[in-house]
Design a protein that fits this description.
294 residues; alpha/beta; 11 helices; 10 strands; globular; binds adenosine-5'-triphosphate; binds magnesium ion
Length: 294
């Protein structure tokens, strides 16, 4: 896979957004890209079980890469489904560029802003060829044909899918399917990307390249919610949000979060390898191997 930076229009980077920053007016540049405010959700038929999300406050601005980590069942995918109104909160609110997901008239605009990559790529493949699958979303937003063709070529190139362009997606490998879905969503150039374990089926080299690609999108102003079980990936984010039983138990820089052994233990998480090595060596906390040896 050769991942290259896509030529996204430059957008102004906003200042760091603090937890539960209140919305102020409707100017998109003064608004965080997305705000979850006191957001709770309980799945219907889940009986007396605790809510899947419990009073979550989270705000993410343009150009911010926020990793979301937590044990199985901690509410990460539920949070993702809330971001584009696929699920609506039964307490609190979710607003994308100031638009509440609870307002049906906002959903088209919200879904044009929020690009979602679900945990299971199968669920997101709609067409009979890789190329048509990428075209599908672009046609839906009504882009001119020439622009659609240009974006398809670029996405095929970025995700190393040129030779698979005519193939039926259901017969591809897991990683190839995941790349098809990623290519389709990235081609839409969304302002907010919500990625639910997007590299779970990619080989290690493609995983590294994908992280670099995401980093270039962030530099161009895309806001990114990056759900992952790979702590090495979370360590490259601007902020790490830790979910435990549906609650945000930490929202801070990766160094702060991964230095807190008690927090990680109670959330059922491990620190990334370099952090564990630096602890064993009694050295200052290192987030990368380069930092540890340098
Ligand atoms: N469709 C559903 N119906 C009922 N309960 C659900 C449904 N989907 C998830 N849940 C429950 O909601 C809680 C949060 O699930 P969620 O899928 O958000 O967790 P997650 O953090 O994404 O986990 P994983 O790491 O396994 O992907 C869990 O207790 C789960 O059992
Ligand atoms: Mg999940």
């Amino acid at each position: 896979m050769q991942l290259e930076k896509s030529p996204l229009p430059a957008r102004p980077a906003s200042a760091r957004i603090l937890l539960s920053t209140p919305a102020t007016g409707n100017d998109p540049l003064s608004e965080p890209m997305i705000i979850f405010e006191d957001c709770s959700y309980r799945y219907p038929h889940a009986g007396a079980l605790r809510p899947a999300l419990d009073k979550v406050d989270l705000a993410i601005g343009t150009g911010e890469l926020v990793a979301v980590v937590g044990a199985n069942g901690s509410g990460k995918s539920t949070l993702a489904r809330m971001a584009n109104g696929l699920l609506l909160p039964d307490g609190g609110s979710v607003r994308v560029k100031g638009m509440s997901t609870a307002e049906p008239g906002n959903l088209d605009a919200i879904r044009e802003t929020v690009g979602m990559v679900f945990q299971n790529p199968e669920s997101q493949i709609v067409a009979n060829s890789v190329e048509d699958d990428i075209a599908f979303g672009l046609e839906n937003i009504g882009l001119p044909v020439a622009e659609i063709e240009e974006r398809i070529e670029e996405a095929l190139g970025v995700f190393g899918l040129e030779e698979l362009r005519g193939r039926e997606p259901h017969w591809l490998s897991g990683g190839q399917k995941q790349r098809t879905v990623l290519a389709g969503v990235m081609a839409l150039q969304p302002g907010l990307l919500v990625l639910d374990e997007p590299t779970s089926m990619l080989d290690p080299r493609s995983q590294r390249e994908f992280i670099d690609y995401i980093d270039s999108l962030r530099r161009d102003g895309t806001a990114i919610i990056y759900i992952t079980h790979i702590m090495r990936e979370a360590a490259t984010a601007d902020r790490v949000v830790v979910l435990s039983e549906g609650r945000v138990v930490a929202d801070a820089g990766p160094r702060e979060v991964f230095s807190d052994e008690g927090l990680l233990r109670s959330a059922g998480l491990d620190a990334p390898l370099p952090v564990r090595l630096s602890r064993a060596l009694d050295a200052p906390v290192a987030l990368t191997l380069e930092e540890l040896v340098g």
